[in-house]
Amino acid sequence: MSIRIKLFLAFLLTTFVVVMGMHFFTRWSLEKGFTEFIEKRQQERLDKIIDVLEEHYAEHRGWGELAGNKQHWISLLWHAGPHRHRPPKWIIEQAQHEPDRQWPPAVTPGTAERKWSPFELRVILLDADRSILFGRKELISQLSLHPVQYEHRTVGFLGLLPGNPVSQASDIYFMEQQADFFFWIALTMVVLSALIAWLMAYHLGRPLKQIAAVVQRLATGDYKARLPVISKDEMGQLALNFNDTAAALEQAEQSRRRWVADISHELRTPLAVLRGELEAILDGVHPLTPAAIESLSGDVLRLNRLTEDLYQLALSDQGALSYRKVLLDPVPLLREDLATFTTDFNHKQISVRWINRLFKPVLVNADPDRLSQLFRNLLTNSLNHTDARGQLEITVQRLADKLVIELADSSPGVSDQDIAHLFDRFYRVDHSRNRHLGGAGLGLAICSNIVRAHEGTLMASHSALGGLAIHIELPITP
User: Fold this and answer.
1) CATH number of domain containing 263
2) Which of 9, 27, 226, 462 is 20 to 30 A from residue 214's alpha carbon, by CA?
């Protein structure tokens, strides 16, 4: 079952329950209020008949004249009604066939199908001793008695048989009309709700259907699939998040392909060199001399260095590099690493200037071995990519709660386009540079992962000396 049908059924069921609940509640409320109104009207009619009977008793000083005249009793009942009309003909004719005191008359076949009976047919008159004046003996047990008084004494009882208080055709017609009216209103509202539910389900289901289609394209490897952002609600935010995810997957896929291609290329070159030299020795083109063995050893070392860099980068990407962090001052560690490069910088005639702007030592929570790896990679990068007779400035200072270390070297410089990709793996500023000097382009990528693992930041910019400036920020432990 599609989400659109589920939404439609959910909306329709909710509306149906609400409409039917309102229908039954409204009908119950109407019937209850109308019944109370009818009962009140019935009580008024009962009081009116009692008043008429009390007047009759006071005028004739007893029930003698009324007790022997059923026609008078029938006329009195209908005269006390709200409309003061004459009794129906069928009642008069039926009453004539009953004994004098039998009331109400037996129901004829024509009246058995009626949904209502007149209020007057439910009234029975009893004497003060509760003997029947007009009534039926078998109905006495069903009566609710109402006293008829004269001069503060009870002279009789007016009995009322149980029955539907809605005892007029107009009342029943009104209730039936209202019931039909409520039914058609409820049915119309359900149909209208079904139409609205379908429109809402279609409107809400359309973006979900688009999302499902685009997700299916993404699952098949089409990482360029995007969702249109047509709203600013949760659906629009979902589309934005999906597009960001698709863009990240596309970039990851491109990086993976470039990663595989670069690894293949980087491994193929030293292996090809090794193979060529070994074949030359085997073919007798080059003699197996100490110089040849030294060259082969150098190629093996470069290959080993490349595989080690790849391994370290893979570990740092997964966060699997072991970090044994302690509180330490990174400045002496940096000076020690710099001292190991003094001979190399002097050999290349690169002057190194040390600028310490710290007023007192600072502590950071760091792994000394990983920080030394970071510093050595950056110093090696400056050594390899700075022209002879150049210079290197190392500045150490504190900015707020950050320890800032900057390594700025002289020419050659780096373009803006290259700076944006310096920390990408296998990226080289000079693609034609000899790999014996330039390396595989993994050092700065490893540096970036190490700084990130220490909750710091690593940035590159143009140096005032004409070369590259590497900016390191590490959080200081209070």
Assistant:
1) 1.10.287.130
2) 9
